[in-house]
Amino acid sequence: MNAAVKADSVKSLLYKEYGEPVDVLHVTTQAINQPENNQVSVKWLLAPVNPADINTIQGKYPSKPPLPAIPGNEGVGEIIAVGSNVKDLNIGDRVVPNGANLGTWRTHATYNSEELMKIPKDVGTIEASMLNVNPCTAYRMLKDFVALKPGDTVIQNGGNSAVGQIVIQLCKIWNYKSVSVVRERPNIQKLKDHLTNLGADEILTENEIRKTQIFKSKKLPSPKLALNCICGQNALEVLRHLAHGGIMVTYGGMSREPLTVPTSALIFKDITLKGFWMTAWTKTNINSKERENMFIELGTLFKDKKLKAPPHKLVPFCQYQEAVANALSTDGRTGVKYILDMTKS
């Protein structure tokens, strides 16, 4: 082993049964294993709290780790020790998970080296911590379903969610027009100004999307791609604006209502409905050149400040209850991303 682990013990969040996170999560302390052979030890720095993490703890998510489990699919860490056979990682390297259910909600952990991916140190710590899920989801949905050209329009609901804000910025970078639907709220103009500053072409409330003439008037071309994380009536209103032959990609269902589609949309407009799950894409493409290139491009965009992290709040690990209690109710409504600061345990 190249170096001794600098931590005597590990603090982890653990759940032994499914349920509401505030009820089933508790802090445990145990000794840290020294890395052997192809293993590395990581000090986790920051770990976002995503809706999927909450759903996993609740037992509602398709990807379930065996119980008892340490939650957390995303985060950024620093290598603090390496085993004797490790070639590609060194002490001091920054890493993110290279797969699902690694359990990032803990201060330290030992993994097989292939379970982690090295990232450039000049990517900001906050941006690096949330690199795996939301930016990749936005990137893949814009790349994989429609061969978009500069000037084409993308329409989405959940425009102020973490994914939605990355979609807006990538559309701006790649010269696509973006139309985002958001829910009405008292400070709606403040939100619209924020999303406009990110590069949005149009931001419409659910009421405004029903009445808008921006496509009929040719102010913007009819969208070829729609991104849906809400479902219910909201998604139906978005679907109505799709161009002939357009595609709607569903990657969430925050309204908990079904996605209903008019028969006419299928017969007369030849609309296609697809689904996207980042976990499944990663599993299929875990060691692909395409995935590597995606991380390089996203990392560069963050490093060059062309991509900004969504509004976020750092919560000390020792005060985790605030993050897990509010993550589902805020993400998608206020756009605030809760991030556990594992260094404050």
**Which geometry do the CA atoms define?**
globular
- The overall average pLDDT, rounded, is 90
Domains (count)? 2
Element order: H for helix, E for strand: EHEEHEEEEHHEHEHEHEHEHEHHEHE
Radius of gyration over all CA atoms, rounded: 21 Å
Which stretches of 5+ consecutive residues score pLDDT under 50?
1-5
- Note the main sheet: 7 strands, mixed
CATH level-four homologous superfamily name of the largest domain = Medium-chain alcohol dehydrogenases, catalytic domain
Helix content: 25-40%
Based on the coordinates given, report the CATH architecture of the largest domain: Alpha-Beta Complex
The CATH class designation of the largest domain is: Alpha Beta
What separation lies between the terminal Cα atoms? 27 Å
Please state the structural category: alpha/beta
Count of helical stretches = 12
CATH topology term of the largest domain: Quinone Oxidoreductase, Chain A, domain 1
What share of the residues does DSSP label as strand, in percent? 15-25%
The tally of beta strands, per DSSP, is 15
